[in-house]
């Protein structure tokens, strides 16, 4: 079991995969801008389950992941338009809370 009891430990845990990819890229002469984190997000709601993860948690996760990716010079795209990971639509075309999309919009 890993104890993550500080912001620094959490960010270190989130950063670890990107540090490994960065080392691999350097060893293979691949520029950071040629690496893309193509799918990431936090589940909003499982199909058929009434519980919805609070939007502010999801927004914080997306914000922090984007910061980690960009700190290494990598590109990113969010895999979360609708459904279980939806940032635009929930299930059945219902609108999702705007928090996560607001984070994405605020970046550029």
What does this structure look like?
The protein is mainly α and 108 residues long. It has one domain (7-106). Helices cover 43% and strands 4% of the residues. It has three helices and two strands; from the N terminus they run αβαβα. It has helices spanning 7-27, 55-71, 99-106; strands spanning 36-37, 75-76. Strands 1-2 form a two-stranded parallel sheet. Helix 2 links the parallel strand 1 (36-37) and strand 2. Helix 1 (7-27) packs parallel to helix 2 (55-71) and helix 2 (55-71) runs parallel beside helix 3 (99-106). It starts with 6 loop residues before the first helix and ends with a helix. 12% of the residues are buried. The mean pLDDT is 89.
Keywords summarizing the entry:
hydrolase; globular; Glycoside hydrolase family 5; single chain; two-stranded parallel sheet; GH; hydrolase activity; mainly alpha; 108 residues
> Main beta sheet: strand number and arrangement?
2 strands, parallel
SSE string, helix = H, strand = E? HEHEH
How many β-strands, per DSSP?
A: 2
> What's the N-to-C terminus distance?
38 Å
* Strand percent estimate: under 5%
Please tell me the overall pLDDT: 89
Quick one: overall form? globular
Return the structural class: mainly alpha
Question: What level of helicity do the residues show?
Answer: 40-55%
Structural domain count:
1
Low-confidence stretches: none
Number of helices: 3
Keywords: Hydrolase
Protein name: Glycoside hydrolase family 5
GO molecular function: hydrolase activity
């Amino acid at each position: 079991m890993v104890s993550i009891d500080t912001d620094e430990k959490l960010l270190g845990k989130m950063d670890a995969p990107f540090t490994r990819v960065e080392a691999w890229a350097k060893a293979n002469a691949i520029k950071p801008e040629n690496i893309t984190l193509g799918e990431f997000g936090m589940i909003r709601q499982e199909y058929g389950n009434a519980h919805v993860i609070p939007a502010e948690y999801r927004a914080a996760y997306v914000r922090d992941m984007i910061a980690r990716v960009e700190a290494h010079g990598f590109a990113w795209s969010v895999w979360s338009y609708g459904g279980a990971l939806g940032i635009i639509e929930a299930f059945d075309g219902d609108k999702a809370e705007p928090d996560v999309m607001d984070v994405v919009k605020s970046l550029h």
